[in-house]
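Section 5: illustrative case.
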């Protein structure tokens, strides 16, 4: 199977591409240098010439806070770029996998979100990712929307590495009133493979279980055997430009493993 991956140089892409190759796929890795998804003609030509059996769309504008002041760029990449891909995939009958986010939800539920629950993003990043979902549904007959959350991996800036880098601080405060599902990029990549045997549609591909950012930090330090003066704080004590949902736990229907187990494997690999 010939698979074209956008955003192949990103945190997810760098784990996904070798995993696809391991299962026998011929992977065409693209990034902004080789395929600028915001240019419709370039997308049309690339997909028409290559005609992959599948497109996995990992490229995205993911700076949640910066999107509040730069909606134009976030929209260009997350909405226009996705629309360009979806139109050509629809025209050529190519299945499209679109990576989305828990931030399409407003966080007002108190039980895990299901894939068909009502969306209501409360920040620009979530809004543009939802509009990307809508473009995929509008233009593609064959698609998988894979919503993930609290992503970390070996090939990008992420919460796990940030916490470890701050472990020497005299006191470290971490938000304890936002609840979600930490997800390792490798778990997401393996989850995407599992989707391919399921009916087309929208799925939640995130770590099983739930925790707060504070609970996530606690587990990181516990598993890494680090003594840290860690204190919980509220969202109000740590203001950010973009609002975050207070509760964005998603029901993943068993697609990914428990988040603590995945974290253990991530930390073990980190030390190799």
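Designed sequence:
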């Amino acid at each position: 199977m010939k698979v074209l991956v956008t955003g192949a140089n990103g945190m997810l892409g760098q784990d996904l591409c070798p995993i696809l190759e391991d299962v026998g796929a011929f992977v065409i890795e693209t990034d902004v240098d080789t395929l600028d998804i915001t240019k419709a003609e370039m997308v049309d030509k690339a997909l028409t010439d290559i005609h992959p059996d599948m497109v996995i769309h990992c490229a995205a504008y993911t700076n949640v806070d910066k999107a509040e002041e730069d909606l134009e760029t976030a929209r260009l990449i997350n909405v226009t770029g996705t629309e360009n891909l979806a139109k050509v995939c629809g025209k050529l009958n190519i299945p499209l996998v679109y990576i989305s986010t828990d931030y399409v939800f407003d966080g007002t539920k108190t039980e895990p979100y299901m894939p068909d629950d009502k969306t209501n993003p409360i920040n620009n990043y979530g809004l543009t990712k939802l509009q990307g979902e809508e473009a995929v549904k509008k233009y593609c007959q064959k698609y998988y929307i894979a919503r993930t959350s609290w992503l970390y991996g070996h090939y990008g800036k992420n919460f796990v590495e940030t916490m470890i880098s701050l472990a020497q601080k005299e006191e470290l405060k971490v938000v304890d009133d936002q609840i979600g599902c930490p997800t390792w990029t490798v778990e997401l990549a393996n989850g995407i493979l599992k989707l391919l045997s399921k009916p087309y549609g929208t799925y939640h591909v995130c770590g099983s279980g739930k925790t707060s950012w504070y609970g996530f930090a606690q587990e990181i330090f516990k598993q890494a055997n680090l003594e840290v003066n860690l204190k919980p704080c509220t969202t109000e004590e740590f203001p950010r430009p973009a609002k975050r949902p207070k509760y964005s736990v998603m029901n993943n229907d068993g697609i990914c493993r428990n988040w603590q187990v995945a974290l253990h494997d991530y930390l073990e690999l980190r030390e190799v």
